[in-house]
Specification:
Layout lengths: L10 E5 L7 H6 L3 E5 L3 H10 L6 E4 L2 E2 L6 E7 L22 E10 L1 H7 L9 E4 L5 H7 L9 E7 L10 H9 L3 E11 L5 E9 L2
Parallel strand pairs: 1-2, 1-7, 2-3, 4-6, 7-8
Antiparallel strand pairs: 5-6, 8-10, 9-10
Length: 206
């Protein structure tokens, strides 16, 4: 089971929350959860979905590698493919997905979020990311605290789904320098041209 590692941690930080599709899963593992979601109207739905889940909290931030930079965030018609990046070969798997509008948001790094919200990083040993191509930027912005995580799970492609997006090999190379190794890779989508999307789990060597 790919997500069995959750039984080894007490908390998770989930960046790219959307409406919290994994709320019940995290509840089943009795985890403390910090959800991070940047889109205002999506964030409001997330807050409603977290009602009666006192161990799970949500924060409205756009995470990147820098603080206080104005970023154009592009919102798609399907509600789950929104990104700071332009669509690339994403159309090869999801031809009906397109951008409908943009909003401008101030970026924040994960360490700054934790400091502003008085969140104790020691309670959260797992980091989950699903941010449509900007995952490596988030990791670079969080390099000072990566040693606090035992596991990192991310969605990542092996092709340029978004223009300039990070690929699995980029994330693996970066995390290796912090002592992380890949322990699981699960394909969940593939194009006719051969590009694939995966959920990848990394574990830090102790």
């Amino acid at each position: 089971m790919q997500d069995a590692f959750f039984k080894n941690v007490s908390g998770v930080i989930h960046v790219g929350a959307n409406i919290g599709q994994e709320i019940d899963q995290y509840e089943n593992f009795n985890l403390d959860v910090v959800w991070v979601e940047p889109i205002p109207e999506v964030f409001e739905k997330l807050i409603k979905n977290l009602f009666n889940h006192p161990k799970q909290r949500a924060f409205k931030y756009l995470l990147t590698e820098v603080d206080d930079k104005e970023v154009e965030f592009k919102i798609t018609n399907n509600g789950v493919s929104s990104s700071i990046l332009d669509l690339g070969k994403h159309i090869e798997i999801w031809p009906d997905v397109h951008y409908e509008k943009s909003i401008f948001l101030k970026s924040t790094t994960l360490p700054t979020l934790l400091k502003r919200e008085n969140i104790d990083i020691k309670k959260y040993q797992a980091l989950v990311m699903d941010t449509q191509g900007s995952e490596l930027l988030i990791l670079k912005g969080a390099e000072d605290i990566l040693k606090n995580f035992l596991y990192i799970k991310t969605e990542a492609p092996d092709f340029e789904s978004y223009v300039g997006c990070c690929l699995i090999e980029d994330i693996s190379t970066y995390l290796a320098s912090f002592g992380f190794r890949e322990i699981s890779r699960t394909k969940f989508a593939q194009s006719k041209e051969g590009g694939s999307y995966y959920d990848v789990v990394y574990e830090r060597n102790l």
